Amino acid sequence: MDGNYSQNDLSHVVEADKAHVWHHLIQHKQFESKDPNIIVEGKGMRVWNQNGKEHLDAVSGGVWTVNVGYGRESIVKAVADQLIKLPYFAGSAGSIPGALYAEKLIEKMPGQSRVYYCNSGSEANEKAFKMVRQIAHKRYGGQKHKILYRDRDYHGTTISCLSAGGQDERGAQYGPYTPGFVRVPHCLEYRAGDQGAPVENYGEWAANQIEEVILREGPDTVGALCLEPVTAGGGVITPPEGYWQRVQEICRKYEILLHIDEVVCGVGRTGKWFGYQQYGIEPDMVTMAKGVASGYAAIACLTTSEKVFELFKDNADDPLNYFRDISTFGGCTAGPAAAMENMRIIEDENLLQNCTDMGAYMLDRLGELQDKHAVIGQVRGKGLFLGAELVSDREARTPMEEARVQAVVGDCMQQGVIIGATNRSLPGYNNTLCFSPALIATKDDIDEIITAVDGALGRVFG
């Protein structure tokens, strides 16, 4: 930390925070007896709090966002220059950064054609759901309106996004939910036994469970299937072999739109521009947010194929026959300006390859921890997006108690390393440690993370 903040200044900030800020995902009763953690500054992969304590950030801003690391002056300059020229105009008109970033983004996404700007992943998914519903009314008399979603996947915080959420504890106490959303089973092969699934050809079996739901609901009522390419907060679940190919076949067979939620995986997290590109599938709609501008500006995007876009152009004489939607802050120009520079950094610094290489290295290092600590049941991941599932009995695969998993997270924090874990999301299965270091991570960074986890596991489990 550069020391530009006096202790008096920081003390005032802490008191102001305690008195007035409503933090995300926090029970505030604790702040009656202790101070909140305030992150004051970041550089590279490290952040400092109000007490000057340095932490290595292994979760890219706490929620998988700051993909190119902290302190990127070129992104700040790109945003500042754009704000002086034009900070905002409603999305019914275009802007220079909006047009240029859309062009650059679509170049990375063969099969996609159009970009709809908004300001959060939840909002992007909500836009996609609205498109599906409007298409159902336009072409199918409103009947083909149901949206399938997967157990353990997460798509955002609005009521409709929670209606499409496969994490029951996240949605608890927020019902009643939006009708027309239907759950399909998860595809975590490690938990196949819990599903009564066969050992062989699990990927095809898991995909076929989706078809069974479609047939039960009626194919003429199902408009879209919304899935994460790699399940994120549900336990960093990489899809089993054969799964995605079969999912694509099923969607085409029943004329169901395939909506891929890349809010976490998009723009480099898995080692390709988008997670779905790891599996050779062709989505109809893609949503993205976190890594689009690495948190330097608020931006989210919904992209669609030209086929989807054309559905909103036919019968132009009908005054209701277009996508009648607006996102106020989708008109902010800072987002696409930051996203352009973010993408340039990833390209010029070859960060997709670094993500692939360092991800493989970290997976190997986690494997070493698995050999050493019996509480690690499985390690898994793609690129720099990794998880370690903790169990109290490796042979029985009994999920570790959530409190003890959180104790590992807390121990790492005390050591100055920030890691994540599934928590208050999946009843009985909040037992996976989560890692998503920035795409700039080095072997030294990863070794520091592994050392911290190793020490924490030793202390928590003896």
UniProtKB/TrEMBL annotation:
Swiss-Prot/TrEMBL cofactor(s): pyridoxal 5'-phosphate
Task: Spell out the molecular function terms from Gene Ontology.
Answer: pyridoxal phosphate binding; taurine-pyruvate aminotransferase activity
Has UniProt tagged this entry with the keyword Transferase?
A: yes
Keyword tags:
Aminotransferase, Pyridoxal phosphate, Pyruvate, Transferase
- Per the UniProt entry, the Enzyme Commission number(s) are 2.6.1.77
Which EC class does it fall in? transferase
- TM regions (residue ranges): none
Pfam families xref list: Aminotran_3
Q: Which PANTHER family match?
A: AMINOTRANSFERASE (PTHR43094), AMINOTRANSFERASE CLASS-III (PTHR43094:SF1)
* Family that this chain belongs to: Belongs to the class-III pyridoxal-phosphate-dependent aminotransferase family.
Q: What name has this protein been given in UniProt?
A: Taurine--pyruvate aminotransferase
Q: What is the lineage of its organism?
A: Bacteria, Pseudomonadati, Pseudomonadota, Alphaproteobacteria, Rhodobacterales
Gene that this polypeptide is encoded by? tpa_2
